[in-house]
Automatic annotation (TrEMBL):
<dbReference type="InterPro" id="IPR036509">
    <property type="entry name" value="Met_Sox_Rdtase_MsrA_sf"/>
</dbReference>
<feature type="active site">
    <location>
        <position position="13"/>
    </location>
</feature>
<dbReference type="GO" id="GO:0008113">
    <property type="term" value="F:peptide-methionine (S)-S-oxide reductase activity"/>
</dbReference>
<comment type="function">
    <text>Has an important function as a repair enzyme for proteins that have been inactivated by oxidation. Catalyzes the reversible oxidation-reduction of methionine sulfoxide in proteins to methionine.</text>
</comment>
<protein>
    <recommendedName>
        <fullName>Peptide methionine sulfoxide reductase MsrA</fullName>
        <ecNumber>1.8.4.11</ecNumber>
    </recommendedName>
</protein>
<dbReference type="InterPro" id="IPR002569">
    <property type="entry name" value="Met_Sox_Rdtase_MsrA_dom"/>
</dbReference>
<comment type="similarity">
    <text>Belongs to the MsrA Met sulfoxide reductase family.</text>
</comment>
<keyword id="KW-0560">Oxidoreductase</keyword>
<dbReference type="Pfam" id="PF01625">
    <property type="entry name" value="PMSR"/>
</dbReference>
<feature type="domain" description="Peptide methionine sulphoxide reductase MsrA">
    <location>
        <begin position="6"/>
        <end position="154"/>
    </location>
</feature>
Length: 165
């Protein structure tokens, strides 16, 4: 467990992000919740300014923060402001919640690779926001697509890795 780390990402509806990340090599656990907003103890019905995000616990011996970001930029559209699929609003923004300078450097490097690839039709609008607090979502939202396999998601893998470009 000494090599376990956490990453905090937001890229639209948290259900779809969690469902895809949970099965990635090196991912130990995922939890959906709220990040970067105005109130404490946010809920699904009351989370002003918060993004729907995920907390990813991963084994740094198996995967890296850069590899997590590489996948993140392949499963949601990072070129749309406050929107993913049919979901519109700041809750659905593309954001990375940065915990330290190394994460910031890695995020900027991956964003440059993704932008330079021109695989997306526009420039990356993903924000880098300071990590403060992760507020877990209500239990009914945890593992939602396992509970409701036909539930809504707009997340899917679009490209091969950016890291080998």
């Amino acid at each position: 467990m000494e090599n376990y780390k956490k990453a905090y990402l937001a890229g639209g509806c948290f259900w779809g992000m969690e469902d895809l990340f949970r099965v990635r090599p090196g991912v130990i656990d995922t939890e959906v919740g709220y990040l970067g907003g105005e109130n404490q103890n946010p809920t699904y019905r009351n989370h002003p300014g918060h993004a729907e995000g995920i907390e990813i616990t991963y084994d740094a011996n198996v995967t890296s923060y850069k590899e997590i970001l590489d996948y993140f930029f392949r499963i949601h559209n990072p070129t749309t402001v406050d929107r993913q699929g049919n979901d519109i609003g700041s809750s659905y923004r593309s954001a990375l919640f940065i915990q330290n300078e190394q994460e910031k450097a890695d995020a900027l490097a991956i964003i440059k690779i993704v932008d330079d690839s021109e695989r997306w039709p526009g420039k990356i609008v993903t924000t880098l926001e300071p990590f403060t607090t992760f507020w877990p979502a209500e239990e009914e939202h945890q593992d939602y697509l396992l509970k409701k396999p036909n539930g809504y998601t707009c997340h899917f893998e679009r490209f091969g890795t950016f890291l080998q470009l």
